[in-house]
């Protein structure tokens, strides 16, 4: 029997905590879409990954420069079932640490996950990009990147 959306969400959370791009990507169908709703300049114009291998490559690249995972835990996780058995909505808080300063902080997220035949086929990620960038000491860099990306 294929995994349910809720089981896939649990495995998604574990892959994020493990900081494993491979475990994360393996949850997705071959032609899945991972969308980032809130724009960040370092992801380029599309703000999404198309297909399992692009998801894998995107997370490998994003996490490659990080020596220790900043995500230390998840809490206040609430899962909302929908009228569509393929779709669940998850909201929660991420406990994160800035390893340069040693300072912990909390950021919020919301995910809309669609699963079919035991794989995630679409994930919409509404993570709080600004709070996370600020907590990691990267807000100025994020604004500089955004300014450069919007310049004619």
From TrEMBL:
InterPro entries: NTF2-like_dom_sf, SnoaL-like. It holds the Pfam family SnoaL_2. It comes from the Bacteria. Residues 10-122 form the SnoaL-like domain. This is SnoaL-like domain-containing protein.
